[in-house]
Prior knowledge:
Largest interface: A-B, 20 and 21 residues
Number of helices of chain A: 0
Order of helices and strands of chain B: EEEEEEEEEE
Helix content of chain B: under 10%
Structural class of chain B: mainly beta
Distance between the termini of chain B: 35 Å
Order of helices and strands of chain A: EEEEEEEEEEE
Radius of gyration of chain B: 13 Å
Oligomer: heterodimer
Largest sheet of chain B: 7 strands, mixed
Shape of chain A: globular
Mean pLDDT of chain B: 97
Number of strands of chain A: 11
Strand content of chain B: over 45%
Low-confidence stretches of chain B: none
Mean pLDDT of chain A: 96
Number of strands of chain B: 10
Helix content of chain A: under 10%
Low-confidence stretches of chain A: none
Amino acid sequence: EVQLVESGGGSVQPGGSLRLSCAASGFIFSNFGMSWVRQLPGGGLQWVSGIPSRGGDTYHADFAKGRFTISRDNTNSMLYLQMTSLRAEDTALYYCAKEITSRGTPVLDLWGQGSLVTVSS
Amino acid sequence: EVVLAQSPGTLSLSPGERATLSCRASQSLRNNYLVWYQQKPGQAPRLLIYDTSNRATGVPDRFSGSGSGSDFTLTISRLEPEDFAIYYCQQYDKTPTTFGQGTKVDIK
């Protein structure tokens, strides 16, 4: 079955860290760029980070630069998002999503079910 | 960054009716890199249309996209019960990619 399954979300205090993971199956993971997109409590969608099929250059939204790191393990078909210095405004449902091309084009044709991150004291 | 304004906020229609959703960009999208997604409650977004008018795999032909520059439209020719959902547009013409705030299509 073609799917993405996120894990690693949870509750954390401001300033804390979390690492999200995304397990891909049913397609050739190493052929596609991947992204993280978050959905805020009010419903809005925000692109967070992207990585092309072979890794290398990565891309982050301004709010994520310096705090979040996207990475991938093509051998094990895994995508990661390391988040540090978390803030209350980072509270969201974080989706892992597959791009339709290899090169970091954020047209997203497969999404996971999401991993909830809550930042609160 | 490019701000996408979707209108209307809510569209109340009956099954069988035509739905016209608008997405207006704060800057011209020279390459027309405009995408539409559908999201139902409790589900992740689903890709419908990319590059303004290309339907994604498996998307029924009652969904169509059009537009250029700053003004883009998603049209659902005849609403089916499963089409009542929230629709988001996204641009990736300029970095960073951004999403509109969504249009909810609900049953009248």
